[in-house]
Each structure stands twice: as C-alpha cells, then as structure tokens.
Amino acid sequence: MKQLLEFLGFIALMQGTGGLVYELTGKLKWGITQRWSALDGYEIYVSVALIVLALALFAVADSRKSN
Fold first, then answer.
1. CA 44 to CA 2: how far, in whole Å?
2. What percent of the chain has pLDDT over 70?
3. What pLDDT sits at residue 35?
4. Torsion angles phi and psi, residue 10, rounded to 5
5. Are the CB atoms for 44 and 6 separated by under 8 Å?
6. Which three-class secondary structure string do you get for the chain?
7. d(CA 15, CA 10)
8. Rounded Cα distance, 1 and 7, in Å
9. Cα torsion at 19, 25, 30, 31 (round to 10°)?
10. How far is CA 25 from CA 17, 21, 41, 43, 55, in A?
11. pTM for the complete prediction?
12. Is 19 exposed, middle or buried (CB count within 10 Å of its CB: 0-12, 13-18, 19+)?
C-alpha cells in the first residue's frame, strides 16, 4: 500500500509540475491539465492542487508501515 501511495504521489507531482512549467513557460505540453478541455482556464489551479495532493500522498505513505 505504501508503494502504491508513493507511486500515485509521484504521478501527481509530475503532472502538477509539468502543468505549472507549461503555464509559466509555454513548453512541455505533455501534462493532463493541457489535455482535458474541461480544465480550460483553471490549469494553474489544477496544477497546484495536484502538487498539494502529491505532498499529502507522500505524507500518508510515510506514516504507513512498510510491508
């Protein structure tokens, strides 16, 4: 379970940072925030939320016992 939480946290962190990099520089258009048209206009907010989610997942994974 700990490894799954860490993996999900890593994916969320990469998507969030990729979204912020794209919104700030216009490069690296590979994140999920650019692919979904429902997120138009909210890309920065979603990217920050993904980074916060990643930090929360890392904290929960750290509090779990390793198997």
1. 28
2. 97
3. 79
4. -65, -45
5. no
6. CHHHHHHHHHHHHHHHHHHHHHHHHCCCCCCHHHHCHHHCCCHHHHHHHHHHHHHHHHHHHHHCCCC
7. 9
8. 10
9. 0
10. 12, 6, 16, 13, 23
11. 0.86
12. buried
Structural tokens at position 21: 């990099």
Task: For residue 47, give the amino acid letter.
Answer: S
Would you state the structure tokens that stand for residue 12, as one six-digit string?
A: 């969320």
Instruction: State which amino acid sits at residue 27.
Output: K
Locate 61 and state its tokens: 């994974």
Q: In the numeric block, which tokens belong to residue 49?
A: 């939320």
pLDDT range class, residue 66, cuts 50, 70, 90: low
